């Protein structure tokens, strides 16, 4: 029986291929609730939960295309420091919120800085990475 369109609650742990844990609902002591296959989750996670039964646990490995996509070089942007007041204080590794032309904020990470330019990576931090999830379906509401 498919869970598509149904509200579900799951507990999960996400790890990278090297075993590094990047997220876990257990750490927050709160299951994740979402509507299955409604576009609220990354595609591979939704697909894994779609045919699960309550109480079932699955382990899935998602390739980047089923998670946050491939890393895109066109989303790495270098701009003159003079165009971004305050950027001279930022260091590589810093995570910041930038504004698009339409004024909407989006996250970015500083990857490089020299005396005249700063380079931001606008890719999702999990882009280009395979993700592993252990998912336990706790409940399904019709």
Brief summary of the model shown:
The protein has 142 residues and is mainly β. It has helices spanning 25-28, 43-50; strands at 7-15, 21-24, 32-35, 57-62, 76-80, 95-99, 105-113, 117-121, 131-141.
CATH architectural name of the largest domain: Roll
**What is the level 1 CATH name of the largest domain?**
Alpha Beta
- Unreliable residue stretches: none
Total number of strands: 9
Helix content: under 10%
Rg over alpha carbons: 19 Å
Distance between the termini: 12 Å
Helical/strand content category: mainly beta
CATH topology of the largest domain: Chitinase A, domain 3
Order of helices and strands: EEHEHEEEEEE
What characteristic shape results from the CA principal axes? elongated
Mean pLDDT: 95
Q: Domain count, please report it.
A: 2
Q: Give the amount of beta strand, in percent.
A: 35-45%
Counting DSSP H or I runs of 4 or more residues, the number of helices is 2
Question: Main beta sheet: strand number and arrangement?
Answer: 5 strands, antiparallel
What's the arrangement of secondary structure elements?
Blueprint: E1 7-15, E2 21-24, H1 25-28, E3 32-35, H2 43-50, E4 57-62, E5 76-80, E6 95-99, E7 105-113, E8 117-121, E9 131-141
Descriptive overview:
The protein has 142 residues and is mainly beta. Strand 1 and strand 2 form a beta hairpin. It has two helices and nine strands; from the N terminus they run E-E-H-E-H-E-E-E-E-E-E. 14% of the residues are buried. Strands 1, 2, 3, 4 and 9 form a five-stranded antiparallel sheet that branches. A four-stranded antiparallel sheet has the order 5-8-7-6, with no helix packed on it. It has helices spanning 25-28, 43-50; strands at 7-15, 21-24, 32-35, 57-62, 76-80, 95-99, 105-113, 117-121, 131-141.
């Amino acid at each position: 029986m498919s869970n598509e369109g149904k509200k579900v609650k799951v507990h999960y742990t996400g790890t990278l291929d090297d075993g590094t844990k990047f997220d876990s609902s257990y750490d927050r002591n709160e299951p994740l609730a979402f509507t299955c296959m409604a576009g609220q989750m990354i595609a591979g996670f939704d697909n894994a939960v779609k045919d699960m039964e309550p109480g079932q646990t699955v382990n899935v490995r998602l390739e980047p295309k089923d998670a946050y996509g491939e890393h895109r070089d066109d989303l790495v942007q270098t701009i003159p420091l003079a165009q971004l007041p305050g950027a001279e204080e930022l260091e590589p590794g810093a995570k910041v919120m930038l504004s698009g032309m339409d004024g909407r904020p989006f996250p970015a990470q500083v990857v490089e800085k020299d005396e005249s330019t700063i380079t931001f990576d606008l890719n999702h931090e999990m882009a280009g990475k395979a993700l592993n999830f252990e998912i336990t379906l706790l409940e399904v509401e019709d």
